[in-house]
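Practice problem 4.
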């Protein structure tokens, strides 16, 4: 799924366009006991309650594709009888009106979701008449040939509110606030089936993780039967390690700066594409070569990539391995942050056998927010 397809589904969560037919929930305590369950048509809820749930549903479809939102493809064995995909398909077809299937789903989540505190499992069934798209991209809501039927699961922490004081209107006094159990935004969830090319994709699911560096891969593998890709942090670590190990003595300031600029240029070039750009092994090899790495250095690239990434077919999301907001130079004692478009202002020079980073100080200079005077390199006079 791409960001446009995800945005299309998020826009449905309003009172006027709501696709939700039924909502089910299970409140679980820290000891994995089911404390409370609910199951009823979504329209039975009060409007204010609907709005709160809409926010949760939207959060489960929020974040960056490739970081927080991951397309997972079901292995073929998971689509056979007894597999994770086959179970979810039966659950979807039941429209959440089968108590046995619901309890089995809750039990699967409780068994596989490792969380030390209370949490709330929310599962909704939705139907969406997919509007046709005119040539100009406008949606024609009165023309629909396909219906997208899907489940959305959100798993939300439930925490006790902090103690404090509040105003008691009945007694007209300040008193201690009653502490309640509060449902927080989801930490993980999934959409099944996926909405690929604006239609039902039974072979895939969209997986959500609030923290892109903690994807709960074991949970996704056990509950959904899918392999989760490398986390954003691990992708960046993998890329940095491959570059350093491959280039070795050729890992110079200029070469790494060229790599950084090439990656940011690729992101800028593809910024309007619905699919985020990714690099496979050959793409990374070409990037290093174009940035100045010699053919002799690249002889060890394959071994370094496969050993570090753990898979020769691993893919790295470009937005995960570069920083478009800053160009950072770090030494044991000093950190320099430069705007990426100004990276060319930084030069590495060797003076009396010692390397120095040279940065022009022609513009106004501040120290801890205070304007300071600089010394002119030409005549030694102080300038503003």
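Answer key:
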């Amino acid at each position: 799924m791409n960001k446009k397809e995800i945005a299309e589904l998020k826009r449905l969560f309003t009172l006027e366009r709501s696709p939700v037919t039924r909502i089910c929930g299970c409140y679980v305590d820290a000891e994995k006991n089911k404390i409370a369950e609910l199951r009823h048509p979504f329209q039975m809820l009060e409007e204010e309650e609907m709005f709160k749930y809409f926010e949760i549903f939207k959060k489960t479809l929020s974040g960056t594709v490739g970081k927080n939102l991951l397309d997972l493809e079901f292995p073929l064995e998971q689509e056979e009888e007894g597999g994770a995909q086959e179970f979810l398909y039966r659950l979807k077809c039941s429209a959440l009106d089968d108590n046995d299937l619901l309890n089995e789903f809750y039990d699967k989540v409780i068994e596989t979701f490792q969380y030390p505190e209370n949490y709330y499992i929310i599962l909704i069934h939705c139907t969406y008449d997919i509007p046709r798209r005119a040539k100009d991209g406008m949606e024609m809501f009165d023309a629909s040939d396909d219906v997208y039927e899907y489940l959305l699961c959100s798993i939300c922490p439930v925490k006790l509110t902090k103690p404090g004081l509040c105003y008691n209107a009945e007694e007209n006094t300040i008193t201690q606030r009653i502490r309640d159990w509060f449902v927080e935004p989801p930490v993980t969830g999934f959409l099944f089936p996926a909405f690929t090319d604006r239609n039902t994709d039974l072979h895939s699911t969209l997986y959500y993780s609030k923290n892109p560096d903690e994807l709960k891969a074991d949970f996704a593998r056990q509950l959904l039967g899918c392999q989760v890709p490398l986390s954003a942090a691990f992708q960046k670590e993998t890329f940095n390690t491959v570059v350093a190990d491959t280039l070795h003595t050729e890992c110079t300031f200029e070469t790494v700066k060229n790599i950084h600029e090439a990656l940011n240029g690729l992101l800028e070039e593809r910024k309007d594409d619905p699919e985020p750009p990714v690099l496979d092994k050959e793409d990374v090899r070409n990037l290093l070569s174009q940035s100045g790495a010699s053919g002799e250095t690249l002889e060890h690239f394959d071994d370094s990539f496969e050993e570090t990434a753990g898979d020769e077919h691993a893919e790295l999301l470009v937005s995960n391995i570069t920083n478009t907001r800053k160009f950072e130079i770090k030494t044991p004692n000093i950190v320099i942050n430069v705007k990426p478009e100004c990276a060319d202002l930084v030069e590495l020079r060797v003076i009396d056998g010692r390397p120095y980073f040279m940065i022009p100080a022609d513009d106004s200079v501040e120290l801890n927010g205070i304007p300071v005077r600089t010394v002119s390199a030409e005549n030694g006079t102080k300038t503003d």
